[in-house]
Structures are given as C-alpha cells and as structure tokens.
Amino acid sequence: MKCPDCGVANMQGADVCDGCGHDMSTVSHLPRGLGKRILEGTIKDLKPRDAIIVGSQDSVPSVIRLMREKKSGCVLVVDGGKVRGILTERDLLSGVAGVVSPEEAELPELMHADPVCLKEDDPVSFAFHHMSVGGFRHLPIHREDGGIGMLSARDLLRYLST
Length: 162
Description:
The protein is of the alpha/beta class. The protein contains 6 helices and 8 strands.
C-alpha cells in the first residue's frame, strides 16, 4: 500500500507509513480491480440460477434422467422446505458406477447431507472461500424471496471475467 504523502510502499494494512510516519488508517485498504469485485460484490451480482430440486424419496434413476434433461451437474435434495443435501455428478460416479445398480441406490446414501448454504446478500468472497476450503463446485443460495438458487464455480469465473 503506497503512502499518499511520501510514496513509500508499505505492507497492506499498515497503520503508519514506514517512510514518513503518516497515518495510514485513512487510506483505503480495499484492493482495486478484481480483488475489489470479490470483496465488494454480493452473490446476488452473480445471478445464481434456479436450483433443480428433488426429494429424498426420489429414485436415483429418475434424478439422473432429470440431471441429463436439465443439463445440470447437481441437484438439491429438499424435504419440508429445507435443504437436506446436494447430489453431484461426482457423487453419482463415485457412489454408483461399478459399485451398485442405480435402481438399488438410495439418494440419502449418495448425497452430501446438510450442505453449506449462502444468502444472496453474502459477499462474493464467501463463495470463493467456501468453495476453496470445502472443495465444492456448487453452493446452494437462499434467495430473499424464499426460493433456492444454485451457484457454480463456472458462475464465479464468469463474474470475474466480465
């Protein structure tokens, strides 16, 4: 972070300039450009799409057909208006392919239970953090109107590239 008085480069977040002692607390610590978009943007800015919702009692073959039909890499498992789990293509491959017949598999056995859910007014940085730390490629989003959206890693990349 550059001091506005003497121009010395200081460490990000420094309270006092190393060169002249200027009070740096009044200098904006927000990065410019890409970093600023990540810190200041909200998930609503990413325009999450509607989630594809199934129930925990739905059959695995019917869920696979729905995912293919909708060209979606994941579905949310919702019962009683509450997100109970998320099922991704990766879950299907690791849980079914070569292990058990899809007709014999149960959705609750394959899904990730109680996924992290964010809100539309959360910062974009929350989505990056949760996806990075959790190794997720999809995050459910609770909308202000009570609906449920879905955010993907592709949505984050699209946001950053605009």
